[in-house]
Amino acid sequence: MTSSLTTAPPRRRFAGIAGGARQYGIVAALVVIVAFFQFTTGGRLLQPNNVTSLIQQNAYVLVLAVGMLMIIVAGHIDLSVGSVVAAVGGVIGIMLADHGVSPWIVVVSALAVGALIGAWQGFWVAFVGIPAFIVTLAGMLVFRGVALVLVGYTRAGFPGGFLAISNDGVAGMTGFVGQLDAFTLVAGAVGIGGIIVTSLRTRALRARHGLALESPKVLVARLVLICALIAVLTYWIALSALGLPYVLVIVGVIIVVYAWLMGNTVFGRHVYAIGGNLSAAKLSGVNTRKVNFWLFVNMGLLCGVTAIIVTSRSGAALAAAGVNYELDAIAACFIGGAAVTGGVGRVLGAVVGALIMGVLNMGLSILGVDPSWQFVIKGMVLLLAVAFDMVGKLRSSQTS
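RE: above sequence
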């Protein structure tokens, strides 16, 4: 077995190179955007406290983008996530403010309500056969109405333990190394080690199955780049007032679990199969109804997680919460390399797409750009990202 892509057939070899190039291009775009705003804001973008604020403010889109990526890969779309977040947030507000329920019970209840809503929508998509676009469009209206009914007035006055989920961090928990939070440094080192071990194991597994491999030089360059970015991010966060935010721990666990789920399980392969070629997936014995149903249950569950994060962050339950969240999540997925036609996309790509959106938001806000123009700029970024994907596919088909 050689250590290059030459072990794969020409078409698969080119697809692997093109797919890798897209992923590297997305990361490069993020680095360029960060560098641009770091320069134009006079270094304010990457001040330690701004880095933690960036994570806290955009945790919602990072979580939703993970679930939305799975939906898009399977060839669907979910337009209801913002309304579902608002509805579940209303449940959280009533339980905490009106009835004084324990925050732990509230968290479990929010996850259960989100999953039930996802099961409701999944039933119509998977077993009745109504297109997801229509089901979730209806859900967007239904659950926004539910949110308005539940939160007739703003609910606030939540206990500190619940507010800490999105507003506090681990700073000082295990002491400091100079000015750097020790726990954050350890977490960053563990993350770097985990990425290296996972990458090497994945490469070994692909080699055993005779799949295409990137060259050792590319592998080393990729790992050095990713590890360097994590190391720098860890340093900035360790310098911040909060240290490692609790919400980043939540988001990090979700990203790791779902990246593994989509890349290393039968369920993940079935999701890609359904989005790539539905007829072939059915002929191969994939239970498409079951997979589609659980995709929407999962999306509802992640909406519950997002509702917890957003309600904790704002310290109140609002009927207007979650507006345009579905657009942010969808944009993050497409910017991160997901295909409009389904079957293509990675969790880490969606995460990078979400970070690009977050950096644009913060950078433009620091520069004082009018909110109206911020919408214009983000819309153009989304359009260019999809156009880039379509051009890449056209060149790929012509070459193969």
